[in-house]
Design brief:
20 strands, 21% strand, 13 helices, 7-stranded mixed sheet, alpha+beta, 49% helix, 6-stranded antiparallel sheet, 577 residues
Length: 577
Amino acid sequence: MTASEPIPSTDSAGSRRTPGELRHRLRLLILVMALLLLGGAAAILIQLRAAAMEKAATATAGAVRLLDDNLTRTLTTTDAIIARMVVVVQDKLAGRIGDDELLRELASLEAGLTQRGNMLVVDARGDVAAAVRPPQGGVPVNYAHREYFKAHSEGAERVIGPMVMGSYSLAPVFTVSRRVAGPDGGFAGLVVVGVNAHFFTDFHNTLGLGPSAYIGANTGGRVMLRQPNPENYVGRPTPNNPIFAAAATRPVGTLRLNSPIDGVDRVVSYRKLLPFNVMVSAGMAVDDILAPWRQTALIIAAALGVVMLGLGGMAVTTFRIITREERSMASLEETVRARTAEAELRAAEARQANESKTRFLAAASHDLRQPLQAAGMFAEVLAGQVEDDPRKLKVVDRLRQSIEATNSLLATLLDVSALEAGKIKPNVSTFRLMPLLAGLVDQIEPEASAKGLAIGAVPTSLMVSSDPVLLERLLRNLLVNAIRYTGDGRVLIGCRRRGGQVVIQVLDTGIGIPADKIDTVFDDFVRLDTPAERGGSRGLGLGLGVVRRMAALLGHDLELRSIPGKGSCFGVVVSKA
């Protein structure tokens, strides 16, 4: 090496690196880290947005099912009451009853309406012939101008009409009416019920779909019901409604559209009430759906900004140190060339400078990992923002895997989350217990054999009533726990009758449970710190916590007996079929 050549650095493998090469590698490293962070954040936001839209579709589908049930019940009950009142009016026209009995029947039947409204008897001229109470306006009301009156006079038996401003109640109503035939079979009038649209206000408010959400119904291409603010939609036509085109091929569905009534972009679910030729729908505004997602995006952007600033500051500091090292080496080279007499001393200084550089690189390497740790912290903050949705937690966990490289107990954590959120619903049935126990033994046997343990199931012909899937998961957790804490001997699963119940028991010859731990082993994060456990994966101490939650969900009691040093017996009390 000549005096004019730069002194290269040496890495741990002995390869020689110049300061320029180190600077280039650090740039590449920082660039890769930035791209990984940006790509991970973008992937999370895409998944969270899709999850929010899917959740909205599920919410609107549930809301429209409830509206279908409510409106079908209202229309069915109202139509049946009207049909009965038509018979009463025909009896009056035939002279079989008088006016007083007609009014008593009218009052009785009106009181039985599902949704309170006015039931009126209208004669062939359109005048009100009978009513329980006078009109709100205080003046006689004629209905000859109403579309349903004209339809009945032309022969229609039943008409479900769009929302109008009620002449009798002075409130927005939709109508259900039936034709009254005279003794000669001709048109003698009709019986009509005006269902007040405001009676559906509380129903809409309980759905919690957002400030710009709506529920509605259409009949004959016109608005029959709309919440909130039904008075704004009286008599409104709905031309070119995309829901009608979709319902022509699929009577039930969900789509995204701009409302032809108010122009709001919504996710809308619809159902067609075939017996009544009525279309019901419920929609959530896209702006309301994505509002939490936008807040999450701001949090992620802020976190990325902090991390990027940290990376940038670290890069600047690192490059300055490298530059100083480079200048120091150049100065050292000049000194070596100018002072040949002090060559050995300068060589020692050069070695010291090189060692200083090596220590710096080690420190820099450590510091460069800190932004990833910071990203992990922000990922945990983000997880807290979306902890009510398992799918979001799963997406966030993927980012956590890329940063922290840990995924040892995700399945258990997801079980706990699903059980706490009430996402798992039991499907109780009657089944034979022996196939379930034998299947569990077959699944667990390889793990038991790997530890040199014997495992078996006691034959039984009993039948029980429970959810076979959840019961199997519960018993599998007990078997895995037994194998984990059993060093030698065997694990056995069987059952015993107890009156009208069956106790399924998992017995082991393991280390047992100290008396002071008996009352806490089913709590979260409680673990027995034993030599047998230290040899394997300790876990988070959630296995028996999942057992406790599943047992509570199924309504099964848990039992535990244990003798330290000899073994334990876990029991699940199930109803006998």
